[in-house]
Amino acid sequence: MRMYDLLLRIRRERLVRYPRIFVYRTRTYFGVSKALVAIIGTEACRWYRYGGCTMCPYPQYKPKEINVERDLKLVLRRLESERPQALMLYSSGSVLDEREVPFKLLKEFLSKIPESVKEVFIETRPEFVDDRLVELDTHAHIMPAIGLETSNDVVRLYHIRKGFLRKDFLKALEIAKKYAFGVKAYVLLKPPMMLEFEAYEDAKRTLKDVDKDGVRVVSVNPVHADPGTLQYYLLKRGLRKPPSMLTLFKLLSENFGRRYVLISEPLKAGKPEGIRPRKDIKEELRRLKEAVRNQDPRPIEEYLAEKQDSA
Ligand code: SF4
């Protein structure tokens, strides 16, 4: 069976009510911030129609009703009541795709966000980052957030099935440096069909490359499995093991101190579908959070050393 047919066969689409909004404290470019995360309901990712990526569940959550204008108004209202320092705007696809979010609406929305908001991360594929960025009239620092996943084109095309090349990412990055504040990049740790040591080497190489490229914020996402994805399909058949926390700790401890802000917020950590703990998931997540907030590897380095001593 072709990969495309398999991806379509295993999907589990369901209806969801949007916008989904929540607030939490996290590390952003300028420090530890109160961030508002908003996911608006749109037609969803264009690439999903061509099968989508092997680990991504998001476009299968279909909006009960699509009303982007209303969703953005509701987000604005929450921004006004919460007064966060950062906004993360998602759409289960690309917010900069005109077919999902009319640029006129986005522009109007950003011109009205409260003064408290200093950073706005806009999730998008790289092909939608273009000269329109210059038209955004806002006091906040705008950063397109792009799932580069890896700097290796073969891994991105065949393990992740992302459908774009590194040169497409670099083009978007140059535009964002010119007309916005820069780019946030997501790096995927252990894409499907990769061994642990290969995944470590791939992410290590990527973290070095994005530093050279001048990315502002990097989020390392250990792959997790959601129903309806290839990652989940393989996991349930015993053909995949999620990445280990030790691999993540090693990777992060070697890369704090680069020019970018390095973050990692693993999903489903400690569950069978998420990153595998070394021993005590609560303690490991606590140390990870502390290291990320301060951009200081010591809490995780100490943990790695303690574990070696007791091994
Ligand atoms: S990861 Fe991004 S590009 Fe890939 S299917 Fe999901 S939303 Fe689309």
How would you sum up this structure, described in words?
The protein has a single domain, classed as TIM Barrel. The radius of gyration is 19 Å and the shape is globular. An 8-stranded mixed beta sheet has the order 2-3-5-6-7-8-9-10. The protein has a two-stranded parallel sheet with strand order 1-4. The relative contact order is 0.11. The protein has 311 residues and is α/β, with parallel strands linked by helices.
Question: What attributes does this structure have?
Answer:
single chain, 311 residues, alpha/beta, TIM Barrel, eight-stranded mixed β-sheet, two-stranded parallel ribbon, 37% helix, globular, binds iron/sulfur cluster
Mean pLDDT: 96
Unique bound compounds: iron/sulfur cluster
Radius of gyration: 19 Å
Number of strands: 10
Globular, elongated, flat, extended or rod-shaped: what is the shape? globular
Number of domains: 1
Low-confidence stretches: none
H/E order of the elements? HEEEEHEHEEHHEHEHHEHH
CATH class: Alpha Beta
Count up the helices. Answer: 10
In the CATH hierarchy, what is the architecture at level 2? Answer: Alpha-Beta Barrel
Q: What percentage of amino acids are in beta strands?
A: 15-25%
- Spatially, the strands of the biggest sheet line up as 2-3-5-6-7-8-9-10
Category from helices, strands and their pairing? alpha/beta
Largest sheet: 8 strands, mixed
> CATH fold name, please?
TIM Barrel
Helical content (DSSP H or I, runs of 4+):
25-40%
Q: Tell me the span between the first and last alpha carbons.
A: 44 Å
